[in-house]
Amino acid sequence: METEAISIGVIMQCTPLSSRWQPFQWQPIEIVGQVGPAGAPHCLRSDPADTRWLFTGIDITLCSSEAEGYFLNISAPVPCWFVMWRIEDVDGAEIPVPKVVTLSYNEAARLMDGGERVDTLPVSDEILERLTAFTHDYYHPEPKRKHKKPSFEGGEGVDKMARAEGVKNGS
Question: Among the four residues 67, 72, 93, 169, which has the most C-beta atoms within 10 Å?
Fold first, then answer.
């Protein structure tokens, strides 16, 4: 089961750092809603102290198969968007391009396990409300089951094994 797509945009920002190893840092700074269809990245600001690019037309679809990941996200102290991005050449400039935006904690973990860069941004109250409703409809935790005690904690099986060892060793 999937929901209708949530259309968003991501604003990426570059700020200078006072480090000889890394002169600047890119990071997502804002998720904007309903910004229109996908288009070419748009430079909002370009100066040495603050460069910003807007990426539009990113569609997010909630899937029932990711309900556990959504549950983990809404259960966190600060629910968030997860933005996976890569540096690419756009019009002769190297800028970060958002490749995947998700609300699933599990999907973000899989991306990071695969070596991708994933940053977070807080979720708005409106999106959190929608995500919570979807999660309550589709996330059903597995019921807890009784576990048998392993044989190393004692029991009849251990006694049988001890008697068998004793007979084998001539005791």
Answer: 67
d(CA 47, CA 30): 19
Number of independent structural domains in the chain? 1
For the segment 22-47, the average pLDDT, to the nearest whole number, is 86
Name residues whose C-beta falls within 8 Å of residue 53's C-beta, 6 or more positions apart in sequence: 11, 12, 41, 42, 43, 44, 95, 96
Q: Residue 164 domain-assigned?
A: no
Q: Which domain holds residue 49?
A: 6-138
Residue 163 within any structural domain of the chain? no
Tell me the residue type at 78. Answer: V
pLDDT tens, residue by residue, 128-169: 999 999 999 999 887 877 766 655 556 666 677 777 777 666
